[in-house]
Task: structure prediction
Amino acid sequence: TASWAVDSKTSMAKLSHELRPYVGGQGILTQATKDRITRDNQIYVYVRLHTDDESVIADLKAVGFNNKAFYAGLAFGTINPSDLLQLASLSIVSTVFPYTPPTSLAVEGEGITSLRANIVHNTIGCYNGSGVKVGVMSNSFGYFSENNPTAINEGTAEVPSFRLVELPDPDNDGIPELTGNDSQLSGDLPEVVEILKEPDPFLAPYPPRDPSGQPTDISDLAYDDEARALAEVVYDIAPGADIAYHEGTSVPGMAQGIIDLAEAGCNVIIDDQFFSGQPIYQDDEISKAIETVVE
Result:
């Protein structure tokens, strides 16, 4: 059973200043703070704990926290704003702060010429990435493919409700494989791409709004298959390489993805994500995961 902090002021101090307005009577909800609440009245947060023990997630769930990723004492998930103070009251909780979606850098698709890989392909054909497995990390991979998507919208365009598709595992190695995707059918990706983990479908915490103030339907998901675009660039440069993918939409999610991709045999791992809250002068969970696989 989790122990609780007695002093409510101590619990409030664990909440970042951006989250305190959600606690009754602590401030005014501005448009920016309202936009962090999804349509199902949840808010995405990070929870930093005093322990690395993953079993304590059960204590977080007991107060309404829906865990989506965990690594080295940092949890990422959703919670009803009214339960924030109760979450902070857990003695195992150090701080609670808001989730900001990562910035995905644009993929221009000119890597093959800028690296002069085309010259290598045309003159020394054996140097094409054969024997190398590249792990790709970004936001979603196959959500918006018309052919064999990795997620299906069971709602409407105005009120989407996505669910992930269970991909086959023909090798019985625990790693699902994607085939028949738009990019694969067009020849822009290899016939098989390993999909270790797609991000859970969720509405963007900061949805663009129409003139009436309602979230628009065009970008309700905080994903745009940026990982697939990144993988296409990899395939252009190294058409003989195998490609695997793991989502990287949160700090603990990316950290765990680095570990999982390395264990899946990837000897090169790339990403195009930037998290604005990452520390500059000390290692965070992602840095620790990198050190783990390099060592």
